[in-house]
Amino acid sequence: MSYIHKHLARRDFLRRTALATAWAGTPFAANLAAIGAAAAQTAGDHKALVCIFLHGGNDNSNTIVPVESSAYSRYLSARPAIALPQATLLPLSLSGFTGPQLGLNPALAPIRPLFDAGRCAIVANVGTLAWPTTLTQYRNRTVQTPLGLFSHSDQQSSWQTGLPTRASTTGWLGRVADMTTSAYNAGAGVSMCMSLAGNNIMQAGASVVQYQVTTQGPVVIETMTPGHWRHDPAMAAAMNKLLTEQRSHMLEQAYTTIGARSIATGQRAKEALASVPALSTVFPANGLAAQLRMVAQLIAARSGLGHRRQIFFVAQGGYDFHDNLLDNQALRLGELASAMAAFHEATVELGVASNVTTFTASDFGRGLQSNGRGSNHGWGGHHFVMGGAVNGNRLYGQWPTVALGGPEDIGQGRLLPTTPVDRYAATLARWFGASASDLTTVLPNLSRFVTAANAPMGFLPVS
């Protein structure tokens, strides 16, 4: 109880409650809006970050594969039962890359044209790190490593909070929103952080509260929505009375405040979405595509939402490939690639392709060594960044040696990350509008790896 008494202040209760849907209207938000009003007047641009989280830990070794003969042979010998046939790989001709020629899993065919067009890039061997770590330091346990290494829940938390050695109530995207909301979204009635995949720590800020939306739009109370066939004026009036009466009990008043805000926010979002024309881009019929289609609609509705900056979180499950890796990963990556390609096409249709950056994240990578029909939990993994502003058809970071016993292999072909999540996140944050000084708050451990000025990796320009 002492932890609750110390840390669960009223504002934290409001933020953590499932009904919390928007930050606008709170005294703290009003103060931030006032502080950022002058900046907002000159911030006429729009930018959006879209995180695609691959739950389960995507197998990096069968996502991007060396095609060159000797490198492919080492890959094949490590996982003979689950290696992709060399002839099926989709070769990439990456600009400035001096390593072995690489190929994409054939299921990723829909995004290959985006590489050719310079709109998609690879960030190699990204993972959670507490400190710069060498293979010798890892083996000798002389450097602190992330808590719960190889654990799904712990590594999802580390990825999303950017704080791999301690618990946190905020995530790095939420902290980016804290740093930028007052400058770009002052007075908005809907949170900058919108999730199509339920509650997540990644978008939780100290002041900004994520707003959860379904693939069909905001959740509204039907009986309180004029025009809805279930609208009941008497019930709406009674509900409104319940949600506006002052309460003496802290929890009752918090529930009342959040409920009222939820209704107001849902109505604002519904009206904003209704004000924009339907997309002509055709999305494939899968769950991730449905999420990204709604993201595109929310981007189209940005003016009605009062947004110059937007942060979205979508997710795809089923990446825990301990068994039947070849078939299951092909299905998942096929859905991912077709959804990403359609989403990029939608941003082109909306005229915002250069203003929207989409990036992948996952629990961890997986070990190169086959366990028979699948692969086990790993550490570092490869990720995609997509958008009109991306300096694409390139690989960023350090391509690892794809071989058992290589210089990054901590055992079973699990990669010691050579790019910390901190640098990956810092590059995205700087493009979005966070300043170099903001990065000390957004990513408190960044200075352990690089200076804030040197943090951006180059796959996006600095705002």
Could you name the key traits of this structure?
single chain; 463 residues; alpha/beta; 3-stranded antiparallel beta sheet; 15 helices; 14 strands; disordered N terminus
Summarize the structure.
The chain is built from 15 helices and 14 strands. The chain has helices at 2-7, 10-16, 27-42, 69-78, 112-116, 135-140, 152-161, 172-184, 233-244, 250-274, 287-300, 302-305, 325-350, 421-432, 439-442; strands spanning 47-54, 64-66, 90-92, 102-104, 120-127, 193-195, 211-212, 309-316, 356-362, 366-370, 375-377, 381-386, 395-396, 419-420.
Judging from the principal axes of the Cα atoms, what is the shape?
globular
Q: Tell me what portion of residues adopts beta-strand conformation.
A: 5-15%
Secondary-structure element sequence?
HHHEEHEEHEHHHEEHHHHEHEEEEEEHH
Distance N to C terminus: 44 Å
The helix fraction, in percent, is 25-40%
Number of helices: 15
Question: Which stretches of 5+ consecutive residues score pLDDT under 50?
Answer: 1-44
Overall mean pLDDT stands at: 89
Q: What assembly state would you assign to the polypeptide chains in this entry?
A: single chain
Structural class, by secondary structure, is alpha/beta
Rg from alpha-carbon coordinates: 23 Å
